[in-house]
Write a structure and sequence with these properties.
alpha/beta; Rossmann fold; Alpha-Beta Plaits; 2 domains; 3-stranded mixed sheet; 44% helix
Length: 301
């Protein structure tokens, strides 16, 4: 191909998703449309086709923007209302540069673009129809070049008056890969949130099974540690148990040895429990109550 030919960037869906493969009965549908319809039609019109493809593992976001700004013409395939294609159409429109619009018959066009000169094409790619489709696309492309006269048809349709500045882009593979890693981390975060461990379940002989979140379990642990630390500083030896009920948290404290009056110890326990919105029950001296028997309790540090 001669280097002095005008260029046409193809803005179209790239990946054939699973549901699209079923619709078109072709797992590589968009590649086949590009190679068997769009590229031949563009070349027949005397242009050099620029494919929306990546090389190796490098991202092509910046290159796409460059092509949208620098290509002499852009062919937009609006089939399946692909979000990326509509974004690229928006970028090209903001620059007030010419476009040719096409779409297959599978999905109706959105309201804003339905009134534009968009050529419907047969996406079946049947061998006996391909040549006719290429000829029709090439004629539509040539007619669009003439009708646009170097401008974007959406410009006049919406009465735009201010042209966007030329976008600044970077071809740095490092920046591109950092962008990819950032997006992958966002996706991974979503997966982790979706498959987070199930809530911890506490059992109560009177109330059956109670669901508790991991955060609530952490709160119970902090409450138990805070109580034992407080009692230890007061010189009090005690056993602590936290019982979870449908009504909230109950803190049971059995005092085994205390140099302080019972009311002083009780006040200290109530103060800590109140900070965690828990109800406190204190037993001074004597054997532990039944609620504290045969359970694992936390000893003061």
């Amino acid at each position: 191909m001669s280097d002095d030919k005008p260029t046409c960037f193809i803005a179209m869906p790239i990946t054939t998703h699973e549901h699209e493969a079923k619709i078109y009965d072709d797992p590589e549908h968009w590649d086949h449309v590009m190679e068997h319809l769009f590229v031949p039609a563009i070349e027949a019109a005397g242009y050099t086709a620029i494919r929306p493809a990546a090389s190796g593992t490098d991202l092509i976001h910046s290159r796409i923007i460059q092509n949208l700004e620098q290509a002499d013409f852009v062919l937009c395939d609006l089939s399946q209302s692909n979000a990326n294609v509509f974004f690229e159409l928006g970028v090209r429109t903001s620059l007030n540069k010419p476009i040719a619009l096409v779409s297959d018959y599978k999905v109706p066009l959105p309201f804003d673009t339905a009134g534009l000169n968009t050529l419907p094409y047969d996406s079946g790619l049947r061998p006996w129809m391909v040549d006719g489709q290429v000829e029709a696309l090439s004629a539509h492309f040539t007619a669009s070049v003439k009708a646009c006269a170097g401008k974007n048809p959406l410009w006049e349709r919406f009465g735009l008056t201010m042209r966007a500045q030329t976008p600044e882009v970077s071809e740095s593979p490092t920046d591109a890969k950092l962008d990819l890693l950032s997006r992958d981390m966002d996706q991974m975060r979503g997966v982790l949130e979706r498959y987070a461990p199930p809530p911890v379940r506490a059992r109560s002989s009177r109330l059956g099974e109670i669901t508790r979140t991991n955060s609530e379990v952490d709160t119970d642990v902090r409450l138990s540690k805070r109580l034992t630390q407080t009692l230890s500083k007061l010189g009090v030896s005690a056993r602590v148990k936290i019982e979870v009920t449908l009504g909230g948290r109950n803190v049971w404290v059995h005092i085994e040895n205390s140099p302080l009056p019972p009311e002083v110890v009780t006040e200290a326990i109530d103060e800590v429990a109140a900070k965690f919105e828990a109800s406190s029950f204190v037993s001074h001296g004597g054997p532990p109550p039944d609620s504290l028997k045969n359970v694992r309790v936390q000893e003061p540090d």
